[in-house]
Design goal:
Elements (H helix, E strand, L loop, with lengths): L7 H31 L8 H36 L15 H6 L7 H16 L1 H9 L1
Helix pairs in contact: 1-2
Length: 137
Amino acid sequence: MDSTTLDRRTMGELERFLRDDLERLETSLRAIARENRTTEKAGMTDVNLHAADTLQTEMQVTLADRHTRQVTQIRGALERLANGQYGFCQDCEAFIGVARLRALPFAQRCRDCQSRAEQRARREVTKPEVREELEAA
């Protein structure tokens, strides 16, 4: 295998990983939703019980949000795989690399472009108007 392409075995391995991870995340999301529907919220008079319940709910919401973002990333990777675009950087169109794809199978950028995107995002957050917006939210 040359360093700019994926062989069939590696593609199959990455696709299986993506599909297995997608199934695991979707199962977890269903469990979170089911638990939220069945949790009884009535009659909490103890402040400590209410605080614990609130914390648990916030943790579940955070976990569900993270899982939802991961599901979206994995579905995007599977779509790119089906379209023959998997493994290529969305910014520079260079091959992302097998090592990076094994570590992060839904990667959309090569290491260099991802680094630049993260630097841009950090600069945006440090701009006074953006920081004020984030703090107000």
